[in-house]
Amino acid sequence: MDPLGAPSHFVDIDSLPVWADQLVTSQPVGEKQVDVHSPFPCRKDINAKIILWRGDVALLNCTAIVNTSNEALADKNPVSESIYMHAGPDLRAELQKLKGCRTGEAKLTKGYNLAARFIIHTVGPKYKSRYRTAAESSLYSCYRNILQLAMEHAIASIGFCVINTVKRGYPLADATHIALRTVRRFLEVHGEALEKVVFAVSDVEEAVYQKMLPLYFPRSLEEEIQSLAFLPADIGNAQGEPVVPERQIRISEKPGVSEDNSDEEGLEADLSFIGSHAFARMEGDVDKQRRLILQGQLSEAALQKQHQRNYNRWLCRARAEDLSDIASLKALYQTGVDNCGRTVMAVVGRNIPVTIIDMEKALLYFIHVMDHIVVKEYVIVYFHTLTNAYNHLDSDFLKKLFDIVDFKYKRNLKALYFVHPTFRSKVSTWFFTTFTISSLKDKVHHVENLQQLFTAIPPEQIDFPPFVLEYDTRVEYYRQSPGICEP
C-alpha cells in the first residue's frame, strides 16, 4: 500500500508524461506555410492536460474513470471485468439500482475499492455501416455526456477507456476521430473544468491514438500544418458533434401554417434540436426546387445554400475515401507564397494520366487538398510542360469542377499561371474562359518561361519538378542561340 492507502499497482496520473512534453519529430515549417492553420490549432495549455497511457483504465488514480458497457450495465468485456474486479462487489449492487443505461447516455457511480473516486458508465452504439451516421451521433453523445457529467460533479481528472467493444464493432480509427475531437472541443470551452484527461489504451489502440492525436492536439505549428491533410471531412461543429448535411432539417415555428417564401425557406439546412412539441420539416420537393431554378424563381441566397450543401457532400466524400493513389501522382501540392504573400498551389499536368485514372477521385482529391487553402487568397501555377494528349483535362471536367467547388475557391483565386503553354493550349484556354467560365478570363496568365514566372513568384518559393527546370533551361538555350536547332 502507498501512503495514501491505495494499492501499489494503481497508477498516479501525475507521474505520467503529458502530451505536450512528448517528442515532436515533425519537419520544420517554411515561411511559405506560416499563414496556413488547422481548425485545431496548437494549444499548449490544452496539450498539457492530455495524457496517452498504455494500460488498464481501472488502475488509474484520478477523480473518475470511464467504463464501457451494454444497456444492462452488465457487459463482460475486458474493461468492465477489470473495473468490477478492482472495485469490489458493492459496485455491482449499485449498478443494479441504476436500471440500465441507454446508448449514448452516461451514468455515475462510486469507485469503491478503485483509486478513482467515481466511475462514469456509458454505452457505445452497435456499428453497422448502413447506419453509420446514427452510430457517429451516438458515440459523440457518449463522450459529450461523460464530459458534461464530469463538469457537473466538479471532477478534476478523468481516465477514458476506448468506448467500444468487440461485440459493438465500431471501427477503431473512426471512433478515435470522434473521441479526440469531442474532448478537444470541450477543453477549448471548458478547459478550466478539467485538469487532466487520460486516454487509457491497449497496444493496438495506442498506435492509432499516437497517429491521430497530432491532428487534434498538435504540439507545434509544424505538426499543425503537416496534420491538415489527414483530417477527415467531418470535423464536427463547435462541440465536435458530427455534421451530416443530408440529414439537416429545420423546425417550423408554426406547424401546419403555411409560411411566406416557403419554397426558398425549404432550402435552409440549419441544424436544430427537436423539442417535444416541435415539428420537423424536411427540405422541400427536390424536383420542384430544380424546376424553380430553371424558371429563375429562386433567390440568390437560396441558390447559394443549395450549392453549399452540394459542396459539403463532396467534401465529406473527399475526406472519407482512400485517395492515396491520386496523392501518389504528385500532381497537386502546396509550395510557397507569391510576392503578395498569397499561397501558391502547383499543378503538374504531366503527372495527370487522364485516360487511366478515376477522374471523379481526382476531383475529390482536389477538394480534399484545397478546402483549407482557399479560405485565404491563393494562386495556382499550372505546369503544362511536356504534357501530351493523355494528360489534358477536358473542358467538361473543368466545368464540373468549377460548378462544384465552394464560392471561396472562385473569390480567393487571384491568378492562374499557365506555364509553358502551346499554341493549341492557348486557343483552348481562350475558348474555355470566353464561352464557358468567363470569370476566369482575367485571372489566367500565360507564362512562356520561368523567368517570367519569377516576376510574380520568387524562385525559392516554388518547388519545381526536375523535368520542368530541364525543359525550361533547354528551350531558353536554343532560343538564345538561333543558329542551333533544337534536337
Task: State the main characteristics.
487 residues; alpha/beta; Leucine Aminopeptidase, subunit E, domain 1; Phosphatidylinositol Transfer Protein Sec14p; 3 domains; 6-stranded mixed beta sheet; 5-stranded mixed beta sheet; 38% helix
Structure description:
- The chain has 487 residues and is an alpha/beta fold.
- It folds into three domains: 11-230, Leucine Aminopeptidase, subunit E, domain 1 (3-Layer(aba) Sandwich); 245-317, no CATH class; 322-479, Phosphatidylinositol Transfer Protein Sec14p (3-Layer(aba) Sandwich), CATH 3.40.525.10.
- The protein contains 17 helices and 15 strands.
- Helix 12 links the parallel strand 12 and strand 13.
- Helix 4 (132-152) packs parallel to helix 5 (172-190), helix 5 packs across helix 6 and helix 10 packs across helix 12.
- The termini are far apart.
